[in-house]
Each structure stands twice: as structure tokens, then as C-alpha cells.
Sequence to fold (137 residues):
Amino acid sequence: MGRLIHEHVLLYQERADYGAKTLPRLASDLHLDRSVLLRCVQFFRAFPIVAHGRQLNWAHYRLLIPLEDKKLRLQLAAKTAKHNWTSPELAARIQGSRQPIPTPEPVVDVEYPSPSRLTPKRGTTGVCLRIFLRQVS
Fold:
């Protein structure tokens, strides 16, 4: 949505008041607040290409969008995806909180023994299936 709004407003940039009128009108048509649309445009400008599989949720992006330093913004986004930080943890990192936030421990692969083959303890294998087939036919 941010890309489409950005491109549409840029298409008519020679008309100075066009962009100022477009967002409020679109917001009322969609029954959204104008700030949501502005955040969508800011999101597109800050993250024009989002790598598939490393996407964060909207709460993370809302915290990252206002950062002016592009390098810092991308580093924090990568670390958030890598360490699975919650949005409050990311907010604390952005604000430079002095409280250390523990990073999750890496998951250690545990090797389980291969399962042994099951053997029936009583009865005849397939009896229930034969009874069912007789009833059906």
C-alpha cells in the first residue's frame, strides 16, 4: 500500500496540493486514520524491499521506521529477526536502555534414538478391517 501511495503521489508531484489532498481523501474512503497511511508510505521508503522469510511484524516496523540512520535501522531489523526480539525488547534497544536484555539461547539439536518397530501384543492383525469390509459389502 505504501509503494502504491508513494508512486501515485510522485506521479502528480507537479501539483503541490495534490499529495496533501490525496491522503486525507484516501483515509476517509478506507475508514482509516491518516497516520496509518503515512506510516505505510514511511515503511515503503524505509524498507523498499523486504526479504522473504525475515519479515517482522508491524509493531517491530513501527519502531524501526522513524530511525533516520539507515544502517542502524537495517542492523536492528536483522538482529531482531535473528534473535526473535519482541517489540518491547526492540524498543529498549532503540532507546538505548541500560538494562541488559537477555538474548535467547540457541536451540541445541538433540539426537533421539530411532524408534523400534511396534509388534502387536494380542489379537490378529487386520481383523477389524476385515469385519468392517464385510459390513460394507
